[in-house]
From TrEMBL:
<protein>
    <submittedName>
        <fullName>Alpha/beta hydrolase</fullName>
    </submittedName>
</protein>
<dbReference type="Pfam" id="PF12697">
    <property type="entry name" value="Abhydrolase_6"/>
</dbReference>
<keyword id="KW-0378">Hydrolase</keyword>
<feature type="domain" description="AB hydrolase-1">
    <location>
        <begin position="52"/>
        <end position="200"/>
    </location>
</feature>
<dbReference type="InterPro" id="IPR000073">
    <property type="entry name" value="AB_hydrolase_1"/>
</dbReference>
<dbReference type="GO" id="GO:0016787">
    <property type="term" value="F:hydrolase activity"/>
</dbReference>
<dbReference type="InterPro" id="IPR029058">
    <property type="entry name" value="AB_hydrolase_fold"/>
</dbReference>
Length: 217
């Protein structure tokens, strides 16, 4: 069994370094989106690195959870696990969806998608602020603008019984919401994939073991 991981907006495989998983883990690197590329087409392109000849699982973190959901519909993963993320557009904050309808995001210069570090540290609730800051320093702001645009305009509405969400009760960016099967990390914040890695690792391992034993896919 292989687990393919898709990191958050602008992030990379460093967010997975603190996980302890029982199966082979393969991070998927971001690729550059084409101009005005829809998230479905982007997800199809990025999914070509996945070997579908053997059983596999997906992990998507934050914005990576949207990509994982899109790939979930295209391929046939044994299980899909979303961390600090959403599975349908209805699980997104209404304010975000409203902003998406206004189309005002197109007027925002790309450089503004590089937030001041003290604000980012607060919003993400990061304890490992050095890692978060390093990731933000390496973020492509053009990619970040594309990703936020796709996030607030996402159209997916149909949940899958084969998807598990792991959300933090104190997540300021994406609070727990919706009817998707969900495990809660008490006092977990948006950066908990790093700060609460042990607990999240246990939940991921248990869910994949359950998927294998029950053969529910």
């Amino acid at each position: 069994m292989k687990i393919y991981g898709i990191s958050g907006l602008g992030a990379d495989k460093r967010v997975f370094e603190f996980l302890t998983l029982d199966y082979e883990f393969i991070p998927i690197n971001w690729i550059t989106p084409h101009k005005n590329e829809p998230i479905k087409e982007y997800s199809k392109r990025i999914s070509t690195v996945i070997n579908t000849h053997n059983d596999f699982c997906l992990i998507g973190v934050s914005f990576g959870g949207l990509i994982a959901t899109e790939i979930h519909q295209l391929l046939n993963p044994k299980a899909t696990i979303l961390v600090s993320s959403i599975h349908t557009k209805n699980e997104l904050r209404p304010m975000y969806r409203w902003f998406g309808k206004t189309k005002l995001i197109q007027l925002i210069p790309s450089f503004l998608f590089d937030p001041p570090r003290f604000i980012a540290n607060y919003v993400f609730g990061a304890k490992n602020t050095k890692l978060l800051n390093d990731i933000l320093d390496d973020t492509d702001v053009t990619f970040a603008k594309w990703a936020v645009t796709e996030l607030i305009n996402w159209k997916h509405t149909t949940p899958s019984e084969y998807v598990l969400k792991i959300n933090g009760t104190n997540d300021k960016l994406i609070p727990p919401k919706g009817n998707t099967k969900m495990e809660l990390i008490e006092n977990g914040e948006h950066f908990m994939i790093v700060d609460r890695a042990d607990e999240i690792s246990n939940l991921i391992n248990d869910h994949i073991q359950y998927a294998i034993k029950t053969n529910f896919r």
